[in-house]
Amino acid sequence: MNGVPPNPARRSERSRQAILAAALDLCTEKGYARTTVEAIAARAGVSKKTIYRWWPSKGAILLEAINNAVVMTTPFPDTGDLAADLCTQMHAVVKLLTNPPLGPAYAGILTEIQYDDELCRAVQEEFINPRVEAAKIRLRRAREQGELPPDADLDLAVELFYGPLYYRHTLRRPPYTRERIVTLIAHVMRSLGAA
Prior knowledge:
The chain has a domain at 58-191: Tetracycline Repressor, domain 2. 72% of the residues lie in helices and 0% in strands. The protein has helices spanning 8-30, 37-44, 48-54, 58-73, 82-98, 102-112, 117-144, 154-170, 178-191. Helix 4 (58-73) packs across helix 6 (102-112). The longest helix has 28 residues, at 117-144. Residues 13-73 form the HTH tetR-type domain.
């Protein structure tokens, strides 16, 4: 023993990461509905009190776990070719959100937000709005570079590009392939009056 007390911040971060991993693992194994805060606490080796000190619900835990994974794996590229950048980003989103461990968790959250106003607000503020804004920034640059017409409605464009992905995910239909995403992008670009 060196007499140095353990760093509580490092211990807390280790516990936080264990909780996020346990929540995703359980959701993959048992499904969203059968995953409980009690089971997450037991799997992570922490108390329920620790969990409730950091998150108000199971949905909030899983939202943070998803958000962390998506931030690291689906940045919005800008190569100067809007269609190619959209294809790269949208394909990454489809892959991430339709495969374990994130797919089952995200599907459960999308169901839960119909009944949980606090979780719905968190999903909008922490997950959806930042990604919509990132897409609009990329679309705005494309508009400035002449890839989209000056009057293109960027809010509507984001919904046209991403709405079909959410439709298929929410209704548990087969996800779009890369080829189908290319077709979707071409249709939306034409509808926006792209050159």
